[in-house]
Amino acid sequence: MYAGNKAMREAFGDALVDLGAENKKIVVLTADLTDAVKVTAFKNAFPERFFQMGIKESDMIGTAAGMAIDGFVPFTTTFAVFATSLANQAVRVSVGYNQANVKIATSHGGMCVGADGATHQSFEDIALMRLIPGMTVLVPCDANEAYKATRAAAEMNGPVYLRLGRIPTPVITGTETPFVPGRAVTLRDGGDVAIIAAGMMVSAALEASDRLAGEGIRARVINMHTIKPLDKDAVLKAAGECGSLVTAEEHSVIGGLGSACADLLVRESPVPLAMVGVQDTFGESGEPQEILEKYGLTSSDICENVRHVLNKKTRRDL
Amino acid sequence: MEEKKKTVLKDYEALGDFALQLRRDTVRMIRNAGHGHIGGALGLADFMAVLYGGGMTSDPSRIDDPDRDRLVLSNGHTCAVWYAALARKGFLSLESLSSFRRMGSPLQGHPARKMLPGIVETSTGPLGQGLSVANGIAMSMKLRGSRGRVYCVLGDGELQEGQVWEAAMTSSHYHLDNLLVFINYNNLQIDGPVDAVMKIDPLIERFQAFGWHAVEIDGNDIPSIVETLEICGNKSGLPSVIIGRTKMGKGVPFMEDKAEWHGSCPSDIQTAEALTALGLSEKFQDFPLPEAWKAGETA
Fold it and tell me: InterPro entries given for it (chain B) (predicted)?
């Protein structure tokens, strides 16, 4: 298992090599990004089950659909923005409508692709993948969870979107932390407010929880590693027990985790909710930390939003 | 087994009759539905007749056979003629043809895999996607050592989609000699002649430049189709494409070569006229239709 700081895509590459040895049906396709998506080791270990597809993502995903239809378990690999926006029609029909057993795995999800800037940042991908009927959407929070999520994706029958980050992020889960798709993990208990986070924002949520504790606020932290199907029970339980929620994601506040929770809450159990995420804007070049700060994706932003929803909750109680 | 297959393939009169039956079914299906894509489907009838008349292995009792030949109809809108062929071969009931394009029918307006598992290999409709999936199936079959072949039909206008050329690179890069593409080249798309909308020629040269074995034939000439399929089946290391020059609306004179028949439905009178043109003969046994429509047929 991993510790310290580790990129999720590295763990993904490791998991694929292990899976490849165990399951001869695993094949990997890539679109000229072998090393960036960390599948070089798989390529070297299983060259006959590795397919270089060139810079043509729609064709890669359609080809993977064909291989899945014929019985293989393909992982397609490229950057998040290319697999989801560029190749969306192939994902929708060749994978989604076909119910093809394709695993669309991506690195470079979120804003933290860094200096490549707005064109390469991916903050609509979760929204786009949520829209595909039957698509499971997995957003692991660290390298250990990325390893488990990769294995879980391979074991599931049906299309899966697996979103991974590029930069090394803190490892916050261990061997013993459970990973069951569709079942959120409560990392920290608390009854004043619940922070529901996904991806690398989970570690920011833990940090926020620590800081809030200093102010006497007990914040529950929930790792929502599966955006679809959403763990409705966990969200509703948090709403009922804490009375206010903050979501945190390295994604647009439109269509992602925050939207999914809001959609559920407004139907079932409305409580004050704030969303930490990218507002309706494109990004820009910069160092990951600079981007996180400028676009409001830090633990401070979470704390601020927590205070905001607590204020609303109090006013509502009066 | 092999001998029998060849006998079927070379019986040109039987194949011709089969094609006429598919055309009759296509006209009646679309009339019954009230809408559908008739022109391209009629032009494709001869190729479908050869495929399902023995050109490809197809056995409805063995749809799970991992070595079966596959068909990907990338220009999914022409599916009426495919459904007709499937019904005539026993993959579907003849009665089911009357449900085409209706609510709850497995015969969706564009082929849907989930409705017909083991028969429709991949859902198609949005143009440009089928060849990628056909490649994937062909690559997978090679990887597991299957003897089966993958046939893929593309429309001519469809070649304007960039993904087709992405896929064409993949086919030759991975030496998919178990893949055979047929282009239903009737030179008409919705907005008019293909050349006028967006030129796709020189097609043979373009496919050859992409590393394909490419031939052009009269796509409505059954002996040519049969002969070309045999030649293409023996091209080692290369994917093959047959550019089939077909006639939109082939077999129904008032529809032939007219872009407006891409997606129009004939009236009752036009339907009767079309069926007359396609041969009123005892050898054709048209599929049963609901009573309500039969009444309208003679009106």
Answer: THDP-binding, Transketolase_N
